[in-house]
Structures are given as structure tokens and as C-alpha cells.
Amino acid sequence: MSLEQTNSKHVRVVPLSVSQNTALERLDNDFAVGIPFNYEELFDNNAVNACAFISVTLAHLLLSDTELTNILQHAMQDKIIETAEQVINDFPRYFNMLRDPDRTYDAQEACQILQKAGVINKLYDLTEEIISSSCVFSTNGEELLRNAILNLQRQSGDSKVSVAIYTCGKYVLLIGCVAGKVFLVDSHPVVEKACGEKTGVAIFSEGHASECHEFIRKWLVKRLKRSGVTGGSMQSFAIM
User: What is the pTM of this model?
Assistant: First the structure.
């Protein structure tokens, strides 16, 4: 499915200008043309395996933004995109000294480390919405994800920002809702078959209709399948 086919009255799909792998890719490209490898820059900017940190930091910034629900829809979407790219580009330097880039972290671990690093200044009580052990691609697993997104939308209502950290296997990403409109931000490189351009991606519902958030759910399931997530994997949907 191409990007042009995907964008419709129901959703807007926007490839980000960067992904969590961008810093490493840039240094690799520099090295390939004879520029010495800058290990200090890699240590500062490397966001590989930092998806939990990126998602939690982005969630914190969006929850702290008092203007997000008071601007026009596309301006709101553009602000979310801008903030996501800023987090990927600029924030790893603040938490990299406290994480192991060779392992992944869950949302709760990321929250604790980000608080220690001074990136977030609030103690978040994560509320798990998917408490069943049903596998991600099972009928019940897909229904649980659908209900979790609907509950997030209800919490958002007409005037609030609600965010959740979604985890399945090694993938952690942000699902949010602003004034009832659902969105998703994935900081991993997303391939063209999943409506990406090998960078991160943001997907926005263009209304409150069930078709909007259902597209986002279906996209996520397809994206996980194409990324090698196995049918026996569990999923988490933790509301911040």
C-alpha cells in the first residue's frame, strides 16, 4: 500500500525526517566517504534501541503542552511531528549515559531513568490496559488493542491529551489522542510497504469515526507482522 493510497479522509500518514537509527546511519555514511568515525557524537546522539525513552519523552512533552488542544487540527499534527523529530535528534544525549544501547527497556524502566536524568520532572503512574495473556495477533488480542485505543479516546474526550506507550516484542511506540482524535508515532525506520520512507512515521486520524482509529490499529498489526514479530508475542498498552 503506497502513501498516496493510504492518506484519505480518515487518516493522514506522515513519514518523519529521521528515525532512531539516523545518527548511526549518518556516521556510517561519513565514514564511507573517508570522514573519521566520531565516537563522541555517536555516544551523544545514538538512539538505537531507545524507542522506550523516545516514546516516554515525547509523551511527557505532549502532556505538558497546554496549547496542543487549542490549535487547529493540522497545526496540532505538525507540532506533534516537530516535537517527535526534536526528541529523536536532541534528547538521546541526556539519557544515553544511563542506558545500555545494546538492550531494550520497557516503559517503566525508561520513566525511571528519564526522571534520574532530569528529562522528565513528574512521577507517572502507568496504567496497563491489556491485562490478558492473549497473543498479539489472536482474535482476542486484536480486540483488546481495539478496546484499549477506544478507552484512550474516551479519556481524551473533547479537550484533553491522553497518551499510552505500546509495547510488543522489541518495539515500543506512542499512541495518543488529542481532543478525541487518535494518533501514533513510531520512531523506528518504517519501510515503504508500511507507508514509510525508512524513517519514523506519524499517523493521525482525521476525525472521531471508528474507521479512523481502526485504520491505525490495523496498520500497527500489519507493521508488527512485517517486522518479524511472532504470533506468540504479548503486548502492552500502558496509559501515562
Answer: 0.90
- 177 touches 183 (CB < 8 A): yes
Indicate the domain borders of the chain: 11-239
What's domain 11-239's architecture?
A: Alpha-Beta Complex (3.90)
Strands of 62-180 (E only): list them.
127-128, 161-168, 171-178
> Please, where are the H alpha helices in the chain?
3-6, 22-32, 39-45, 51-64, 73-90, 92-95, 107-117, 139-156, 210-226
Cα angle 38, 43, 47 (rounded to 5 degrees) comes to 115
| CB-CB contact of 129 with 114 (8 Å) | no
User: Which pLDDT tens digit goes with each residue over 5-34?
Assistant: 455 668 899 999 999 988 766 655 554 555
Q: Give the phi and the psi of residue 99 in degrees, each rounded to 5.
A: -130, 160
Q: Across the beta sheet with 181-190, what order do the strands follow?
A: 11-15, 199-205, 181-190, 171-178, 161-168, 235-239, 127-128
